[in-house]
């Protein structure tokens, strides 16, 4: 399906950054295809008085384990003011956490448990309401819940890293960046809506393997997108398909809907780690020449791209106990790909072999070559920013922790947890994305 003629603003915007000027990016698929069957388990919601608090908590744990919800099957909960939480105990704690959602030490793992495994849906509803975007765009709540449920459902819950929890973490980080004083007063409602939406959906339907794996196994997505930004293109088009299927924006003018879809694609495609140097060079040049004018829509859009890139790789800038958990998750996902490659006698992708690289060396390389250069420029842009200084301080502390562990085969961290040396890439986009940079680190 060809898109109609874009609004002049959309044309100027897309031409200015060149993101969508590729052959495969001009066509959108109005359908979405998940790569795993839907889980359709009934919620244990009996109101029988024989159910004790202990049994209710067991039900909550069972539901989190199964990752099932009436919301995800298109059934809107009838309880006033609630989405999918089963009791006031959990609802109250989650609500309390949402009051602190703009703080950098926000524990998304705890929030995931308190929201019964649906932190992404709850967080997005809250942030859209905080910004008044539901009223501004006259969004229908039933359609909104259906769309968010579809997004949640299209993330693969069996992926250790690329799942809805990662999307929620990126969305929370994006919210923190949108609040920066350099941005907050100049962003339009459309800018904020696009930033949050792109963060929530930027990895939707991620298969848990990287682009080189899809290419060498002849996956249909690699052929469809001509081996270029395969996963990012799929995330974007899947999101557009869900927007259209849910009818969330169907009441808006056609030109506006197309503009939103194209800008959304530009943001999600910017998360392709292979284009890191391209964006970083442009960002640095803007800062050196002081040429950014955030009163201009194309410049605001570029900053949204940079903010999303920062949010996507910000894990090393989190507090150590959070950062290390993400490292363990991404490591497990890499190993799974490596195990598949071994099983089918394929060449094991870099960083996917558990016997190869140590956690500290890969993390140090990732921080040194990817995270530090990007966040140094972000810090220049947002100066003076307490948040940016906090992130840089945490980044250096975490790097010091990895350097202290370098070459160390095992033992315990200062918090008492056991450390065993394994292969782990700090790249938050998937194994292989930073292969060249990692090899350079190893010399």
TrEMBL record:
Residue positions of the active site: 162
Domain of life: Eukaryota
Entry GO MF terms: 3',5'-cyclic-AMP phosphodiesterase activity; metal ion binding
Positions of AMP binding: 162-166, 203, 312, 363
SUPFAM superfamilies in UniProt: HD-domain/PDEase-like
Annotated residues for binding of Zn(2+) 2: 203
Domain PDEase: 86-409
PROSITE patterns named in the record: PDEASE_I_1, PDEASE_I_2
Cited InterPro entries: HD/PDEase_dom, PDEase, PDEase_catalytic_dom, PDEase_catalytic_dom_sf, PDEase_CS
The keyword tRNA-binding belongs to this UniProt entry's keyword annotation: no
Cofactor(s) it depends on: a divalent metal cation
Protein family (similarity comment): Belongs to the cyclic nucleotide phosphodiesterase family.
Name this protein carries in UniProt: Phosphodiesterase
Organism: Gadus morhua
Gene giving rise to this polypeptide: pde7b
């Amino acid at each position: 399906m060809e898109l109609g003629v874009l609004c002049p603003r959309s044309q100027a915007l897309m031409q200015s950054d060149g993101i969508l000027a590729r052959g495969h990016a001009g066509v959108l698929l109005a359908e979405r295809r998940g790569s795993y069957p839907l889980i359709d388990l009934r919620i244990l919601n009996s109101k029988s008085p024989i159910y004790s608090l202990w049994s209710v908590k067991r039900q909550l744990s069972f539901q989190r384990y199964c990752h099932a919800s009436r919301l995800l099957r298109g059934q809107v909960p009838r309880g006033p003011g609630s989405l999918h939480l089963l009791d006031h105990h959990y609802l109250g704690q989650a609500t309390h956490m949402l009051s602190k959602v703009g703080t950098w030490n926000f524990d998304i793992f705890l929030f995931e448990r308190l929201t019964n495994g649906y932190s992404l849906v709850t967080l997005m509803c809250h942030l859209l309401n905080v910004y008044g975007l539901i009223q501004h765009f006259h969004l229908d709540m039933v359609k909104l819940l259906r769309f968010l449920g579809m997004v949640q459902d299209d993330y693969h819950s069996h992926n250790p890293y690329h799942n809805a929890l990662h999307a929620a973490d990126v969305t929370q980080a994006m919210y923190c960046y949108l609040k920066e004083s350099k941005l907050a007063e100049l962003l339009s409602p459309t800018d904020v809506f696009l930033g949050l939406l792109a963060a929530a959906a930027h990895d939707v339907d991620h298969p848990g393997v990287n682009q080189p794996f899809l290419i060498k196994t002849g996956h249909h997505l690699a052929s469809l997108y001509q081996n270029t930004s395969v996963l990012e293109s799929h995330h974007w088009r899947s999101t557009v398909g869900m927007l259209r299927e849910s009818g969330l924006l169907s009441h808006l003018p056609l030109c506006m809907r197309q503009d939103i879809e194209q800008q959304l694609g530009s943001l999600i495609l910017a998360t392709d780690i292979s284009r890191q140097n391209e964006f970083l060079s442009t960002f640095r040049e803007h800062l050196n020449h002081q040429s950014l004018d955030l009163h201009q829509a194309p410049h605001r859009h570029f900053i949204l791209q940079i903010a999303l890139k920062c949010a996507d790789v910000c894990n090393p800038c989190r507090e150590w106990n959070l950062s290390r958990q993400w490292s363990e998750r991404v490591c497990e996902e890499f190993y799974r790909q490596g195990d598949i490659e071994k099983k089918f006698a394929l060449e094991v992708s870099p960083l996917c072999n558990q016997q190869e690289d140590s956690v500290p060396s890969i993390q140090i390389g990732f921080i040194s070559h990817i995270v530090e250069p990007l966040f140094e420029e972000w810090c220049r842009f947002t100066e003076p920013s307490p948040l940016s200084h906090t992130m840089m301080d945490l980044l250096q502390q975490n790097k010091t922790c990895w350097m202290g562990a370098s070459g160390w085969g095992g033992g315990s961290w200062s918090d008492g947890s056991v450390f065993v040396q394994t292969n782990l890439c700090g790249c938050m986009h998937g194994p292989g994305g930073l292969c060249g940079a990692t090899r350079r680190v190893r010399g």
